[in-house]
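seq:
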Amino acid sequence: MTYNIELLSPAGTWGALVAAVQNGADAIYLGGKAFNARQYAGNFDNEKLKQAVEYCHIRGVKIYLTVNTLLNDRELKELIDYIIYAYNIGIDAVIVQDLGVAKLIKEITPDFSLHASTQMTVHNLDGVKLLEKIGFDRVVLARELSCEEIKYICQNTSLEIEVFVHGALCISYSGQCLMSSLIGGRSGNRGRCAQPCRLPYEFIDRELKEVLFPKVFNRDENQKYLLSPKDLSLIKHLNALKNAGVKSFKIEGRMKRAEYVAVITKIYRHYLDTGLAIDPKDYHELLQIFNRGGFTQGYFEGKTGQNMMSYRKPNNWGVHIGEVVLYDKKRQMVQVKLKSNLHVGDGIEVWTKSGQGQGAVVTKLTAANHIVQSASKGEVVSFKIKGDINKGDKVYKTSDIKLNEQAKISFHENANNRTIPIYGNCKIELGKPISLNLWDDEGNFIAYVGERTAEQALMSIDLQPGLALPISEINNARRNAVELLEKRRIDIHLEKRTNIELKNIKHKISGLLKDDRMDQKTAEIKLSVQIHHYPQLKALTKNNVDRIYIPVNVFLKNDSKENLKNIIQDYISQEIEVFCVLPRILREKDFPIYMDAIQKLNDFGIAGIMIGNIGHMNLLKDNRHLKLFGDFGLNVFNSLSLYVVQQLGFKGVTLSPELTLKQIKDIKKQPLEIHAQSDKNVLESEIIVYGRLPLMVMENCPIGNLSEYLSAEHKCRCDQRNYGLLDRKGMVFPIQTNKYTCRAEILNSQPIFLADSMDDILASGTNAMRLLFTIESPEKCEKITNLYKDALVMGQEAAVKKHSDFVNQIEKEGFTRGHYYRGVE
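struct:
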């Protein structure tokens, strides 16, 4: 499939928007003051947003609005006016994460183009196909996909495919990270990620309580940023992406300065247009403007490993320009032998042996006892800087004043690098006003007629047939005609749209966002248990829960399928529903691993399957009789997203663990077209009330990265020891692994515990509560299950009293209430 290639650049500020447009972007993505995943960017208020649309459309540039966060019911009501405003001013498309938001936009503005954010974690063809049915026009694929996977998807869908080509990488699959949320209350799904992946950690053996990396392996003590990837750069693979069928090449960076946007956009524009191999000078500029220890090609070639990571430093490294020759601590003067140029005004950083970088801006530069403005490779220069600096320390240039000044010229107030070819015809006739027609290559046409008539010339000039018109009138005609054409280029985007007002769509949304709420206190609530491994499953056979979730890996790992089948039959004989749980990530390459197990699930008599991604629904095409449940990875955050998953065929769903109990209570638990019908039509909602929530799911396994230290064969042994990450505060985050895919999940350092809050759980109106067991011993699983069962039967106070010794143990070990009371930003 052949497309016109689009270069898509970020804009967190007005300066960045101008920089992107003037340096060759075909489209801009930006956010408003709310509802977007970069709440710490400058962003655009409504008036500035309108100006941005006009500025871009005049210059032939599209503009996409990010509404790529999870919204609660109250925020959905606020969103309505915002979407109508965005539609009426001519925004070209909306980028969304929340299925409920997508539903709302389609209801009120059916022709508004929808782009699926990378926060939707779309990582296979089935996910793309489903979004196509829902009404999306474009999908931003997960950054973890290889070139071959991207090509396969492009060749088998009519949707436009967008991929990131440059900028910061998340170590977790986007949309599946709860780390910032649960550690600090700042949710990445709500646009407020605090980037805990850029903090230092130590790699430990949880059983031996021993730090493995960097200490045991005798590595540099400063290499502690174990979750911090380098930035992505696919500048060398643009032709491969074109051949794959990718429509839009996306640059990450709404939090970056305008200079960054200018430099990156200009270079990618050049090589997209020319198809040439990148010049070393241009690659150096990419590195200079921002890098974290060089660039990575990410997962593009299907490879992972240490080369993707920036273990020593999580922020901008700059470019290595030399080493310290001498440092005078008294005068605070350093001598550096240069490996490349240095100018007054450049920013530098000295990497000291203590691991603390010492930074400064060069305000005075000396070379060969002379004050100079710049110095070249091979020279020894001196400048002032404070710090614990020693001979041999490396020196990096973190900011290049010449590069920044050059970038600023491209987006100064009167910058006009981006021009649009226009054509004109001017007619001057005696006794008539000047007539000026203008048109462009897109078919926009205007006709302007001046105010003053042409008169007979009083002097001889080279103007046939001897007419005269004041030059001011000619200039006025030119100026007014251009303004008319600019207005035409703006208005053309609005002509096919109906000016929508809230009063005209009330009938459309009345059934979707009603203010009335039924009393949703639950008289009966189901108790579900999810296990992680076979011994836990065996231990809970006599605990009389309502549902048991078994990971599909248990079906793959178990040597004795007959014993597993007998245990499952034991559960079924007690009228306990048995569900198989699929991993949240299943790429095309994973299907052969799991399809055989999925196809044989009928042999075990299970009731249903739980999935954490809409792209996995089609795996059940041969098992339509099984109930389909949605896991928390679907990010169901409001009544509309609950409605959408019900429409897709789900019989139950786990609500987002980022919701408070009050917000859960406000969510309509029933399908919106059903109110007084039988209970069997109700979409079951579930919340997780115990367990260590997975904070991240990672394609680049941190254990696999260190496999050269963990085994003599340099092979990943991620399932043979109990590993974890130790943070600065002494908290240990267990790592849960999947040996079949070498993906890893980081678990929270503490489990959610709500057995003493059963009254609040019941008041929330949820239909089921789940105990999520991961690293717990089988014995502990039994105790926790019994505690929650008793809390349901005899009440929370009596249950806590009955199990007081065990509750005291849990309190001593530490637990969290999650977000059920505090919520997220």
